[in-house]
Amino acid sequence: MILEGYLAKLKTYPEDEIKIVVTATAKSVLAPSWEILNAYKEKRITWREYAECYINEICNSGVAIAEVRRIKSLAVLKHVRLICYEKQYPCHRFILRRLIQVFPQFLDISTFIKLKEYLLDEIDRGRIMNE
Fold first, then answer.
1. Which of 47, 57, 60, 116 is least surrounded by CB atoms within 10 angstroms?
2. Which residues, other chains included, contact 83 with Cβ-Cβ below 8 Å and sequence gap of 6+?
3. By CB neighbour count within 10 A (0-12 exposed, 13-18 middle, 19+ buried), where does 69 fall?
4. Dihedral, CA atoms, 12, 17, 23, 25, nearest 10 degrees?
5. How many secondary structure helices (H) and strands (E) does the chain include?
6. 124 by DSSP, 3-state: which?
7. Helices (H), the chain
8. pLDDT, tens digit, for every residue of 40-87?
9. What are the φ/ψ torsions at residue 120 (nearest 5 degrees)?
10. Nearest-angstrom CA–CA distance, 63 and 56
């Protein structure tokens, strides 16, 4: 199972969970780039545009894809909690959580396009934040 949480509560989460900090300051390959993070915080792009850029960043990085697959495998055996600074939605960890849950075994361009469309539809419908 893949869960989410934030750094201020890190010590309150169960000890038997695997906790993965997905922030840029932790040098996580799953953190959004400073470029898109700052564009969103400065209101130069919408949340949906941010999400699309973030999905593109993850799915175009072999290192990030490998980490997504590693976390997906770990979550079969144990609870895995994705940790970031933001207390609540919107935060990239919500997108990442859903991305990991639905990530395909093989990712070709056609599958990537379908995956991105699916995730953006989930965001548009408010389903990612309501899990």
1. 60
2. 4, 5, 6, 7, 10, 19, 20, 21, 22, 23, 93
3. middle
4. 70
5. 5, 3
6. helix
7. 34-41, 47-59, 62-77, 92-102, 109-124
8. 999 999 999 999 999 999 999 999 999 999 999 999 999 999 999 999
9. -65, -35
10. 13
